[in-house]
């Protein structure tokens, strides 16, 4: 069996696609990579929030899934919109890497909790808002581009440190630059952070689907991500909305913590719901209802209004 794998061509995307290739090879499947450019890769002069979050890193891959020129598309689970088009679905989630955000710098003595002021670069509205909330002494600057580009901007002196997902930093072998692991209790990560998702069209033959899923899917991670993604879906949060959620799945019990923060970090809502993995999506939905009922509705409206200006 031969699998055509569609991927973006950034180094992190290639790491992910090659990781999937390794899993498939272990089961005797052959594969090839098909490199695809997306709008998110091409448009670097505008913030992600302004391009519009919906599918900026996925649209071109999805077109090729439909045309059959690729069998599967590999994404960071975090970058996949919460509602997929009806003819596409996620067929596997890989085992999650450590989920924390990390502070990355050439000066690894820097610490967000020390109270010392310095400049942090990030493009994520969630990280900006959380920095404003937990670290008001920190100056935040917008910093787009892939990891290598951001590190160059760091070296140019545009900021003192970056705030990034540990998963990406580790996969690109930049562990030496990690100054601090941010606690997930405060800096709850983005939905899906640390897992790789495989997307396919409904037309993928069932034999291929089952073989790919068997070799790549991590069941416990899948249950956790189902809960997180149901939460995100109910809040209709694209990646530019500062929504966060993290589920753990231990002995088929889901514990889902998630919430919402407004753009300037003034109001942070966060709650936890526990329940059986068989009800992962219900748990996600319930958590979203609870957050919306606590004023999340108004926060979301205000965020949408601010982002559209
Ligand atoms: N939005 C970009 C993106 N998508 C996935 C990762 C990191 C790897 C992951 O979380 O799976 C990153 C970079 C970052 O947030 O630092």
TrEMBL record:
Reaction(s) the record says it catalyses: 4 porphobilinogen + H2O = hydroxymethylbilane + 4 NH4(+)
Cofactor: dipyrromethane
EC number from the UniProt entry: 2.5.1.61
Keywords: Porphyrin biosynthesis, Transferase
Chain ranges of the Porphobilinogen deaminase C-terminal domain: 226-292
Gene3D superfamilies documented for this protein: Periplasmic binding protein-like II, Porphobilinogen deaminase, C-terminal domain
UniProt cofactor note: Binds 1 dipyrromethane group covalently.
Annotated ranges, domain Porphobilinogen deaminase N-terminal: 3-201
Domain of life of the native organism: Bacteria
InterPro entries hit by this protein: HemC, Porphobilin_deaminase_N, Porphobilinogen_deaminase_C, Porphobilinogen_deaminase_C_sf
Sites bearing S-(dipyrrolylmethanemethyl)cysteine, chain numbering: 239
Metabolic or biological pathway, per its Swiss-Prot or TrEMBL entry: Porphyrin-containing compound metabolism; protoporphyrin-IX biosynthesis; coproporphyrinogen-III from 5-aminolevulinate: step 2/4
Enzyme class: transferase
Annotated function: Tetrapolymerization of the monopyrrole PBG into the hydroxymethylbilane pre-uroporphyrinogen in several discrete steps.
Remaining remarks: The porphobilinogen subunits are added to the dipyrromethane group.
Family recorded in the similarity comment: Belongs to the HMBS family.
Subunit and partners: Monomer.
Protein name listed in UniProt: Porphobilinogen deaminase
């Amino acid at each position: 069996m031969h699998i055509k794998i569609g991927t973006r061509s950034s180094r992190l995307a290639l790491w992910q696609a090659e990781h999937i290739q390794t899993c498939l090879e272990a089961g005797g499947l052959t594969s090839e990579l098909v490199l695809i450019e997306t709008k998110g890769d091409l448009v670097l002069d505008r913030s992600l929030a302004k391009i519009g979050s919906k599918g900026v890193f996925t649209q071109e891959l999805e077109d090729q899934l439909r045309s059959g020129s690729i069998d599967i598309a590999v994404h960071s689970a975090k970058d996949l919109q919460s509602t997929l088009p009806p003819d596409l679905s996620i067929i596997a989630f890989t085992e999650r890497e450590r989920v924390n955000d990390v502070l990355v710098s050439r000066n690894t003595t820097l610490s967000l909790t020390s109270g010392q002021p310095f400049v942090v670069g990030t493009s994520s509205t969630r990280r900006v808002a959380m920095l404003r909330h937990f670290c008001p002494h920190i100056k935040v600057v917008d910093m787009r581009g892939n990891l290598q580009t951001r590190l160059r901007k760091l070296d140019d002196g545009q900021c003192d440190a970056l705030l990034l997902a540990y998963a990406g930093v580790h996969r690109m072998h930049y562990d030496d630059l990690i100054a601090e692991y941010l606690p997930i209790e405060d800096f709850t990560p983005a939905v899906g952070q640390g897992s790789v998702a495989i997307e396919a069209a409904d037309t993928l033959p069932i034999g291929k689907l089952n073989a790919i899923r068997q070799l790549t899917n991590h069941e416990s991670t899948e249950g956790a991500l189902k809960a997180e993604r149901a939460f995100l879906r109910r809040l209709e949060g694209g990646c530019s909305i500062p929504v966060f959620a993290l589920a753990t799945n231990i002995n088929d019990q889901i514990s889902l913590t998630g919430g919402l923060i407004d753009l300037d970090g003034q109001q942070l809502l966060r709650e936890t719901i526990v329940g059986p993995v068989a009800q992962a999506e219900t748990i996600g939905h319930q958590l979203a209802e609870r957050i919306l009922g606590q004023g999340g509705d108004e926060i979301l409206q205000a965020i949408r209004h601010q982002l559209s200006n």
